[in-house]
Amino acid sequence: MNSIALVDCNNFYVSCERVFQPLLNGKPVVVLSNNDGCVVARSSEAKALGIKMGVPLFKIRDLVERHNIQVFSSNYCLYGDLSHRIMTSLQLFSPVVEIYSIDEAFLELTPNQSNTNYGEEIRRCLKQWVGIPVSIGIAPTKVLAKVATDVAKQSGAGTFCLDKAEAADTILATMPIADIWGIGRRLEKWFTTRGVSTALQFKQANPELIRKKMGVVGQRLLLELQGISCLPLELIPNPKQETCVSRSFAQAVTTLDELQTAIAFFVSRAAEKLRRQQQTPAVMIIFARTSFFIEQPISISQTIALPTPTHYTPELLKLAQTSLKQIFRPHHPYKKAGVIMTGLQSERIVQGDLFEQPRDTERQQRLMLTVDQLNQKFGRETLGFGIFGQQQDWRMKSDLRSPRFTTAWDDLPEVKAGFY
User: Which residues of 252-283 are buried (b: 16+ CB within 10 A; e: fewer)?
Assistant: First the structure.
């Protein structure tokens, strides 16, 4: 019988920073959210100093200075590229791989591979090939593999194989119900008031009680904890139902021109994502809002039904700019804006408009493909649209971002060789 392995990158954002800056090893490191606001990743050393996930940077300034904590802005280009290298490497160890998130993947292992030695081989190769340390849990089901990975992380073992029911029960008996994958804090109170406070008690609970509260999702979760696999690996991700690109502004935006520039940038980025996903939207929503904490907060939005689903950036920009002029309210300090593309469908589905001039769709696709390829090769925003402008004070703050070591020519690390 095959097993499931969950490969989970350790402190992923921090580990990415350390790949090209080995002097960070052994030092406390934190990575910040958009606009350098809150802590979203911590090294083990930073955790030991009591830094909590999500804490605002200004609240730990003294701690940062006192312990010389290394602080970085999020470097999504670097993280995304190293994640891709990890996921590509994992396919050499199993033909069945489900990419669960940027730093997690499930693998299906044969009986001969379902052991600690094979997990350690995966860990060794990933560290050598990509430079990222990982923890691996191996078990008969996805949910138990998640439990095994948590044990591997907390114990420092690196790899943990949970293949015996007795061993699983021992671990589940000390595991709070909120830590079960799929339960969380939301359902913890409901179960605790009914005498179910540990993962083992959940596993042994009346199936009708669980089905009543959680439906078929809860029933599958129960079976997974009992070692019965009913959550197959998803090799082909479900098509996305919508794509959103939004940002908080480093400085408040008060003029229509500034907001148009920001919205145009978000529309362009969303269209690029859709082309990569090979999808087109039927509806585009643009929105902007002030801070929630001012005296009279406001928000504006407009839903635009596209005449024909398209991911052609110039057309989407034109529609967005026209709509924004209609809804813009001057003299308000806008702090966040964005665009949502929804009603997504395959780009291969083309439904024309009887009363619209025929489009040169192939020409549009060739043009956008050229733009995307050039931006990918020479760096994002190498080619853009005039409406983006030169001065973009609203752009997300990332004063502490490390170089894009693997995706920008200008940021490639230099190797200096000496002769002796």
Answer: bbeeeebbbbbbbbbbbbbbbbbbebebbbbe
What value does the mean pLDDT of the chain take?
Answer: 91
**Topology, domain 3-160:** Alpha-Beta Plaits (3.30.70)
Name the fold adopted by 176-226: DNA polymerase; domain 1 (1.10.150)
Single-letter amino acid code for the residue at 116 = T
Selected from 3.20.20.140, 2.40.160.40, 3.30.1490.100, 2.120.10.30, the CATH number assigned to the domain covering 243-388 reads 3.30.1490.100
Question: Residue type for 193, please?
Answer: T
> In what helix (H) or strand (E) does residue 145 lie, and over which residues does it extend?
helix 142-155
Q: Where in the chain is the domain with CATH 3.30.70.270?
A: 3-160
The C-alpha atoms of residue 291 and residue 293 are separated, in whole angstroms, by: 5
Cα–Cα distance for residue pair 136/265, rounded to 1 Å: 39
Task: List pLDDT tens digits, range 79-91.
Answer: 999 999 999 999 9
* Residue 158: count of CB within 10 angstroms of its CB: 17
For the purposes of burial, counting CB atoms within 10 Å of the CB of 10, is it exposed (0-12), middle (13-18) or buried (19 or more)?
Answer: middle
Strand order in the sheet with 334-342: 242-253, 334-342, 283-290, 299-305
Judged against a pLDDT cut of 60, whether residue 353 lies above it is answered with no
pLDDT over 90 at 395, yes or no: no
**Which of 255, 257, 327, 250 lies closest to 285, judged by CA?**
327
* Beta strands, E only, 27-139: 29-32, 39-42, 70-72, 97-101, 104-109, 134-139
Instruction: From residue 209, give the alpha-carbon distance in Å to each of 112, 138, 177, 205, 216.
Output: 38, 29, 15, 7, 12
| Residues 36, 123: Cα–Cα separation, whole Å | 32
- Structural tokens at position 249: 């502004």
Q: Where in the chain is the domain with CATH 3.30.1490.100?
A: 243-388
